[in-house]
C-alpha cells in the first residue's frame, strides 16, 4: 500500500483527505478518504479518467443494502470522482485467499447476499451488472469476521486452517454485509419506470426480449463461478493458456475436482451445475436460484431441533 506522502492531489477534491489507496482496478484508482463535511466520516473515492467511464448514471438510481451506495459525484477537467460508501472489509477475493475456501454455511451467507442484490438489479432496477467476480464483491465486516477455516480439508490446507480464530465469536456466523461494487460494465436493459425493454414500447421484437434474458443470464453464470470458488477455493475454469481457457468455458468443461469437492454436499453441487449450464435458456435465473433447496436451508435457524 502507498504511504500517505505519495498520494496524488486531485483538483476539486480538496474537501477530502485521501488516507490510502485501496484497490487497483483496471480502469480506476480507489482511495479511502476522510470527508470533512459529509454525512459519512469515511468514504471510498473512485477516480476514473473521463474517457474511460459511463456507469454512474446507472448507480445513481440504485438503492439496496447489498449494493455499494453512490454518495456523491463530481468531476474535474480530466477525471470523474465517484464518492462511494466505504466497504472497510475490502474484497471478498482476499477473504478467499486468506481462508483457502469457505464452509457451506459461510458460502451460503455470502452468495445469498450477492443473489439478493442481483434479484434487485434484474427484477426491479432492470440492470445487468456484467462483471460479477470476487474482486467486485466487497464487504462491511459486521459484526464478526472468521479468521480461520471451520474445518480443514486436506493436508495441503491444514496449516492455513489453523491460523487465527473467530474474532468476536459466533462460530458459523457470517462475514458481515456483502455488497456489489463496480458498475463500470453494467447496462440498463429495461426501463424500470415503464417496465418495458429499453428504448422500445409495445412493438418489441422477440430477439430483444430474448436479449434481455440472455444478458441477465450472464450474471447468473458469474454467480455460479463465484459460488464454485467460495466452496472449494479455486475457480471452475482455469488454464494458463487463454485459448484453452476460452475453449473450456465455451464447452462448460469443469469438474467437481476430487478430493476438494468430496465433502461438499450434493445439493450445493446441484445448484452450481444449474448455474454453470452452457445453454442460457436452461441456466437458472435469479428466482430459481433463490428457491433452490441449498439456499432455502438458510431460512431455518441453525439452532432449531430437527
Ligand atoms: P475497476 O472498474 O477499476 O475494477 P472498482 O470499482 O472495481 O474499479 O474498484 C477497484 C477496487 O477498489 C475494488 O476491487 C476494491 O478493491 C476497491 N474498492 C472499490 N470501491 C470500494 C469501496 N466502496 N470500498 C472499499 N474498497 C473499494
Ligand atoms: Mg473492479
From TrEMBL:
Residue ranges annotated for the Protein kinase domain, each copy included: 16-295
Source species, domain of life: Eukaryota
Coiled coil (UniProt feature): none
Protein's name in the database: Protein kinase domain-containing protein
Parent-protein start and end of this portion: 116 to 421 of 630
Amino acid at each position: 500500500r502507498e504511504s500517505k506522502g505519495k498520494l496524488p492531489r486531485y483538483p476539486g477534491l480538496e474537501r477530502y483527505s485521501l488516507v490510502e489507496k485501496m484497490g487497483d482496478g483496471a480502469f480506476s484508482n480507489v482511495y479511502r478518504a476522510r470527508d470533512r463535511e459529509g454525512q459519512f466520516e469515511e468514504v471510498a473515492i473512485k477516480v476514473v479518467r473521463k474517457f474511460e467511464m459511463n456507469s454512474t448514471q446507472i448507480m445513481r438510481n440504485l438503492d439496496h443494502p447489498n449494493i455499494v451506495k453512490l454518495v456523491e459525484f463530481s468531476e474535474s477537467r480530466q477525471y470523474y470522482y465517484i464518492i462511494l460508501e466505504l466497504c472497510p472489509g475490502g474484497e471478498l477475493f482476499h477473504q478467499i485467499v486468506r481462508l483457502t475456501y469457505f464452509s457451506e454455511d459461510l458460502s451460503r451467507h455470502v452468495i445469498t447476499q450477492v443473489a439478493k442484490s442481483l434479484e434487485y438489479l434484474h427484477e426491479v432496477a432492470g440492470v445487468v451488472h456484467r462483471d460479477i467476480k470476487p474482486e467486485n464483491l466487497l464487504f462491511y465486516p459486521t459484526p464478526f469476521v472468521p479468521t480461520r477455516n471451520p474445518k480443514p480439508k486436506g493436508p495441503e490446507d491444514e496449516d492455513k486452517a489453523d491460523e487465527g480464530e473467530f474474532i468476536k465469536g459466533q462460530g458459523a456466523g457470517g462475514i458481515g454485509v456483502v455488497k456489489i461494487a463496480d458498475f463500470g460494465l453494467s447496462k440498463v436493459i429495461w426501463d424500470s419506470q415503464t417496465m418495458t425493454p429499453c428504448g422500445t414500447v409495445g412493438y418489441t421484437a422477440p430477439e430483444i426480449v430474448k436479449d434481455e434474458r440472455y444478458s441477465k443470464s450472464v450474471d447468473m453464470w458469474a454467480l455460479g463461478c463465484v459460488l464454485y470458488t467460495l466452496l472449494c477455493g479455486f475457480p471452475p475454469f482455469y488454464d494458463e493458456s487463454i485459448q484453452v481457457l476460452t475453449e473450456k468455458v465455451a464447452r462448460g468443461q469443469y469438474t467437481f475436482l476430487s478430493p476438494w469437492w468430496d465433502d461438499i454436499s450434493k445439493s450445493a453441487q446441484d445448484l452450481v451445475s444449474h448455474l454453470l449450464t452452457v445453454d442460457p435458456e436452461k441456466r437458472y435465473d435469479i428466482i430459481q436460484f433463490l428457491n433452490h433447496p441449498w439456499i432455502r436451508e438458510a431460512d431455518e435457524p441453525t439452532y432449531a431441533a430437527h
